[in-house]
Amino acid sequence: MSPRRKTVLRVAGLLVVLTVAALTLQRSLPDFGQTLDALRAARPWWLVLAAAAEMTSLRHFALQQRRLLAGFGVRMSVPRALAVTFTRSAISFSLPAGSAVSAGFAFRQFRTAGASRRTAGAVAVLASVISGVALLVMYGAVVLIPRGGAKGNADTLVFVLSLLVIAGTVFGIDYFVAPRRPGRPVIDEAEPEPQLTGGWWARGLGAAGRTLADLRRLPRRAWVLSLVHATVNWGLDLACLAATAAAFGIDVSLVRLATVYLTVQLVRQIPLSPGGIGVVEVALLAGLVSAGAGHAPAAAAMLVYRLLSCWMIIPLGLLTYGILRRGESPGGSPSVEPPVLAGSRKPG
């Protein structure tokens, strides 16, 4: 299928989704003035907690990839890993086919850090697979772990603060167990790569087998900590949504909120628009309203959550991209070409 036809189909699919959503929500959409009133009535300390949760979430997304690189014998500093994370998230949110361009940018940054082509590719694939598993682990933990009888916003406060404490603990553990020098590469570059032939199912099975083989090569500490970082990343992003909802007086149980969140993340995987812009907002608003939130508070919570988790990251990513480019002087690290914009995301 030609790129032009793919673009036409993507735009048509987006219009269909938005039209169906608008027809479904036409009686639920709040008046603009009511939404402004809800925004003015926001509780500021909850918004501070939401912002802290989202920024910490991005840090653990960076630490997940850094830990995988370290497992393959490649070192990357925490500041550089954070810069790569903000930049690739901004690319994913703002460009057509942003997820693919973001993955390509991360691949080139891994190469700049000293990874071979095969190692950089293995890290990119494993990070995606582990992130998907971590999303399900996080949801299962929220659903199955009892929360001690706290109700409403008290339950949310315990959840958010607990995750922030867990995040700090995991960061400390990662720091103290990290080797001070790069380990030996765990991938033998002289080993010939298998040629994936046959139908799509045969190639898929071959790629899955290769991913499992790369995972077995990793030290157990590397992939376990990577899974923990990814789980904390998703948990804190959910905590950002929970704190934002509490800021506008939305009293929804964490289990129902986690179900809305999981649904939105699945909808986001449909590549209809960069970063799911438009689709995610509609899905999140519909989910909050169906969970029992008032129309105006739901709209206000959706706007603030998307501001913290998507729209605000785009200018920050542009800033970190400039910092990365400036740090790659001709006499220093190998140059990394900027992403190709013509014809062309988080943890994710």
TrEMBL record:
Membrane as a keyword of this entry, yes or no, is yes
Origin: domain of life: Bacteria
Residue ranges crossing the lipid bilayer per the database entry: 86-107, 119-145, 157-177, 222-250, 270-291, 303-324
Q: Where is the composition biased (Low complexity)?
A: 331-340
Tell me what topology the record assigns in the membrane.
Multi-pass membrane protein
- List the Pfam families hit by this protein, alphabetically: LPG_synthase_TM
| Location of the protein in the cell | Cell membrane
Q: Which InterPro entries match?
A: L-PG_synthase/AglD (IPR022791)
Keywords, alphabetical: Cell membrane, Membrane, Transmembrane, Transmembrane helix
List the residue ranges of the region (Disordered).
329-348
NCBIfam families per the UniProt record, alphabetical: flippase-like domain
| Name listed for the protein in its UniProt record | YbhN family protein
Tell me the organism.
Dactylosporangium salmoneum
